[in-house]
Design a protein that fits this description.
Helix 4 packs across helix 7. It is built from 11 helices and no strands. It is globular and about 45 Å long. It is 79% helix and 0% strand.
């Protein structure tokens, strides 16, 4: 008996959120390596601002071409999205870049991406008084153990000392927490309004840029530090912004709109697995312990949301 032909278009459409989540995870793994190199010359606050301004311009141009740049009648939703951007992009991405400088790509991506889903669940438990089944707490525990296992593993050239390790862990945890808060707010808006994923990404980006325009001068840091005055660095900033922010965040919003929040967050967290072969190709040694820890962390996330 000949099996029926597979309708690939229908299959893709029915799993659009899942495919988008995996696509964003792969792009974020690649751009983490790029931002790690850029971050050696450009401080986190300035880098985040440049990325935000460039990505906002890219998103605005794309929306203008589609005739969807202007939004009306969604003031409350826009304010929530902007708030999501302030937290998730303005604060969260700055913390992520700071963690990259101290932990390197492998540890930072693992912490920021795999801690976000459990943190989201714990926030919901505290704020909404949602009780979880025992398997959910087992998933959280497994994720935390996996992350801890990778953090203490000694990689090539990272971190430089114990103080860098401590600060990196703090920054990566802040990035994960901000990502969790931003994702919850974004999903709430995307599932209750007609705002598209790309429009959502632009509003979030503008919120992030707004807080950075206040934060950067208030901190006394230069708007254009010495490392950013070299033309060559801007080619890499443009490439990383286009891949990880313009495309990556749009795919993240598509995932949050079209897939269950738990599934979307789990797939986005697989960045920690995608980054492993990339650092190996670059010449870094990744131990079996680090690989097992990353797999354990993602397995914990899958268990957490299977219990939901």
């Amino acid at each position: 008996m000949i099996p029926p032909a597979i309708d690939h278009a229908r299959m893709f459409a029915s799993h659009l959120g899942e495919f988008a989540g995996l696509g964003a995870a792969m792009l974020w793994a690649v751009t983490a390596l790029l931002y790690f190199q850029i971050g050696r010359r450009v401080p986190p606050l300035a880098l985040n601002l440049y990325k935000g301004v460039l990505a906002s311009a890219m998103l605005a141009i794309a929306l203008a071409v589609q005739g969807k740049l202007w939004l009306t009648g969604e003031t409350t939703a826009l304010l929530w999205l902007a708030t999501s951007g302030v937290v998730g992009i303005g604060i969260g991405d700055t913390a992520f870049f700071a963690a990259l400088n101290r932990l390197g790509e492998r540890r930072t991506v693992l912490m920021a991406e795999t801690l976000a889903p459990p943190l989201t669940t714990l926030i919901a438990m505290v704020v909404l008084a949602e009780l979880l089944p025992l398997t959910a707490y087992l998933g959280i525990t497994l994720t935390l153990f996996g992350v801890a296992w990778v953090i203490v593993d000694k990689g090539v050239g990272e971190p430089r000392d114990r103080e860098h390790l401590k600060l990196g862990v703090v920054y990566a945890t802040i990035a994960a927490l901000c990502q969790a808060i931003g994702s919850v707010i974004s999903r709430g808006v995307l599932t209750t309004t007609d705002i598209t994923p790309m429009q959502s990404a632009l509003i979030r980006m503008l919120g992030g840029v707004a807080i950075l325009l206040v934060w950067l001068p208030a901190s006394g840091r230069a708007l254009l530090p010495a490392g950013a005055r070299q033309a060559s660095i801007w080619r890499w900033i443009l490439l990383a912004t286009f891949m990880g922010t313009f495309i990556g965040i749009t795919l993240q919003q598509v995932a949050l709109q079209n897939a269950d929040a738990g599934i979307a967050q789990t797939l986005l967290a697989t960045s920690s697995l995608f980054v492993m072969p990339l650092v190996v190709v670059r010449g870094e040694t990744v131990s079996l312990r680090a690989i097992c820890g990353a797999v354990m962390a993602v397995a914990g996330i899958a268990l957490l949301f299977a219990a939901g």
